[in-house]
Write a structure and sequence with these properties.
Elements: H1 2-17, E1 37-43, H2 50-63, E2 68-74, H3 92-100, E3 109-112, E4 123-124, H4 130-139, E5 144-153, E6 158-167
Parallel strand pairs: 1-2
Antiparallel strand pairs: 1-3, 3-4, 5-6
Length: about 180
């Protein structure tokens, strides 16, 4: 009798737990814009949740080809190399940038175009929100073109970079340009 009750219970649970549910996948909007969005992902090798952030960043790159640049920033928090690591990705400027983008609640976190996402935060610690912030930036009008002339000398391993800006609308105020050398393959 006990086995019959157990089998009946399993059959009942199985019958109600195997319902397929439709998952709504929102359409990705491809924007007709010359804007390129910078997503700075605050990460670290000791961060257990950071693979989810890296996966979200990769998905954003795939959904907005040519419209997003992603840079992983290994500052200080959770970025100390593992004991068996060959590499240490931390450096002083990354730590400074991590501190500048503070008010994130943990890693992974991302800053999109260094635009405040809320009244007090430059970064979001919720990777699920990153695509919405990227989309909001892509929806903004393209107001400034930047041009770079770069010459590189192999012998001295030095680069000269000249930046020019061409506003598309009448702009007021001060603007800053950051030049970041990244490694990719």
């Amino acid at each position: 009798m006990k086995n019959l009750i157990y089998i009946s219970f399993l059959a009942l649970v199985t019958m109600f737990s195997c319902r397929e549910q439709m998952v709504m996948i929102p359409e990705i909007t491809v924007f007709d814009t010359d804007r390129v969005i910078l997503l700075e992902e605050l990460t670290g090798v000791n961060c257990p949740n950071c693979p989810a952030g890296a996966l979200q960043a990769k998905e954003i790159l795939a959904n907005y080809p040519g419209q997003v640049v992603v840079v992983a920033v290994h500052g200080d928090f959770l970025a100390e190399p593992l004991s068996n690591s060959t590499y240490d990705f931390r450096f002083e400027e990354a730590e400074d940038l991590e501190n500048y983008l503070k008010d994130w609640f943990g890693k992974p976190a991302a800053s999109i175009n260094r635009v405040p996402l809320t009244s007090s935060e430059f970064s979001s610690s919720s990777p699920a929100l990153w695509p919405g912030f990227v989309e909001a930036e892509l929806n903004k009008d393209h107001v400034l073109d930047l041009f770079a002339e770069i010459t590189y000398d192999d012998a001295t391993r030095s680069a000269d970079i000249t930046i020019a800006a061409s506003p598309k609308v009448n702009l007021e105020g001060d603007y800053n340009v950051t030049i970041m050398l990244t490694e990719n393959n």
